[in-house]
Specification:
Blueprint lengths: L1 E9 L22 H29 L6 E5 L1 H10 L1 H11 L4 E3 L14 H19 L5 E3 L7 H9 L4 E5 L2 H4 L7 E4 L6 E5 L1 H8 L14 H10 L5 E7 L13 H15 L2 E3 L2 H7 L5 E2 L21 H11 L2 H6 L3 H9 L3 H5 L9 H6 L6 H28 L11
Parallel strand pairs: 1-2, 1-8, 1-9, 2-3, 4-5, 5-7, 6-10
Antiparallel strand pairs: 6-7
Length: 410
């Protein structure tokens, strides 16, 4: 039977405060708790709480035939527990249905897979353990930050024992092939690949309220007709930000009504069933291998890394951050390590993006800085203070007296 796989990314970064040059050496408080609390509560009210309630209603009203999956970053979970604990409770209610799968990702929604295998594995294990402790479920499928994938990353993910990985159905990788099947990695390492159908995903996530779009207005009847016209698929993977519901697409657009009616329409007017990623991984036979020598992502027309790493500002800050890895890990200081990992969150580098062409509106919308240069200066001011803290801790360790041996006897 043909399958539809819904996957939702849930993420909120710890945003930096306005950290001036004169704060360096004087303040080690980098993150804007007031803004982070306000945004978390706002998005919880507009998206997380009403959408979780909707998804729970859909699972129950369709007798468990509606199945979905989430990837929730550890930094999002940290903020939910701190600012909106009711969001955690609503995800627990979804977990208890048995119709929801939670995926593994990096705890800090980082780009560590591009730079440090050790840090990458550490963050994945941290997030996996957090999901297990909160929801009682062990992630079996991996989804990297921004769906970033390459052959090298696949080998690390397979080494960690995951059954499958989600990534983008990028045209320049697939060529004539379809994203609507499972694939093997190029190294046949046992990891199955599930690819996003970006056309049908973006119809909901980006184009739903776009009046100039030829598909507007999008109805459930029209959308299911499109699903039925897809040429002989094994699976159609609909991957999107969870904030699509209520935040990116406001309630007034009709996005909640669309989603409320979609499962029953699919089940009554198509041959599709709903499956989670691990169910697809266990059922589908890969139709071929995918070779990805250079990393891909789900961002922009290029489906590459240039939303995060592609200009001098991004590359410089990224390199300087990871140059500190061995020094940070050699010091037993939890606060230092926690801040270093929060600084790895991909959003910080996204704010420095200078792509103001075909995807410019997207980058402007999500960027709270006045310019990429402002984002870079703010980040580097923080990193300068962080480096001073690191220097001080290292100096204190050198000053510690060595353990004296006991020379007096009797």
């Amino acid at each position: 039977m043909k399958s539809i796989c819904f996957y939702f990314q849930v993420h909120q970064p710890f945003r930096l405060k306005n950290y001036r040059f004169f704060d360096i050496g004087r303040s080690h408080e980098y993150f804007d708790d007031i803004q982070n609390s306000w945004i978390c509560k706002r998005v919880a009210e507009k998206c997380y709480l009403p959408t979780n309630k909707l998804m729970l209603d859909l699972i129950k009203s369709n007798n468990g035939r509606f199945r979905i999956s989430y990837s929730i970053s550890g930094v999002a979970l940290d903020q939910f527990e701190r600012f909106t604990p009711e969001v955690i409770d609503s995800f627990k209610a979804l977990a208890e249905t048995g119709c929801v799968e939670f995926l593994a990702e990096t705890y800090n929604h980082s780009l560590a897979s591009l730079k440090s295998k050790k840090e990458f594995i550490s963050q994945v294990n941290m997030q996996k353990q957090r999901i297990e402790s909160l929801f009682g479920l062990t992630p079996k499928v991996f989804r990297n930050t921004e769906l970033i994938y390459s052959d090298h990353i696949a080998d690390m993910v397979a080494e960690m024992g995951f059954e499958a990985q989600l990534t983008e159905g990028a045209k320049h990788i697939l060529g004539w092939r379809s994203p609507n099947f499972a694939y093997n990695t190029s190294n046949n390492n046992g990891l199955k690949l599930l690819l996003k159908n970006f056309q049908l995903s973006d119809d909901i996530a980006f184009r739903f309220s776009q009046h100039s779009w030829e598909g507007f207005p999008l109805t459930t009847e029209k959308y299911v007709d499109w699903l039925n016209k897809v040429d002989n698929p094994d699976c159609i993977n609909l991957f999107m930000d969870y904030e699509t519901f209520g935040e990116h697409q406001w309630k007034e657009t009709g996005i909640f009504e669309f989603m409320r009616n979609l499962p029953s329409r699919v089940l009554s007017h198509s041959d599709f069933s709903f499956k989670t990623p691990s169910e697809l991984a266990s059922e589908l036979v890969p139709v071929g291998n995918i070779h990805v020598p250079y990393p891909i992502s789900w961002a922009d027309e290029e489906r590459d890394l240039t939303a995060w790493l592609g200009n001098d500002l991004q590359d410089d800050s990224f390199e300087q951050l990871y140059e500190l890895e061995s020094r940070v890990l050699s010091i037993d200081d939890e606060a230092l390590l926690r801040d270093w990992r929060k600084l790895q969150t991909s959003d910080h580098f996204y704010y420095m993006c200078t792509k103001w062409f075909s995807d410019g509106d997207v980058h402007k919308y999500f960027n709270h800085y006045d310019s990429p240069y402002d984002a870079y200066i703010n980040y580097m001011n923080v990193l300068s203070d962080f480096r001073l803290r690191l220097d001080s801790l290292e100096q204190n360790l050198k000053k510690k007296p060595k353990n004296e041996s006991n020379v007096n006897e009797g």
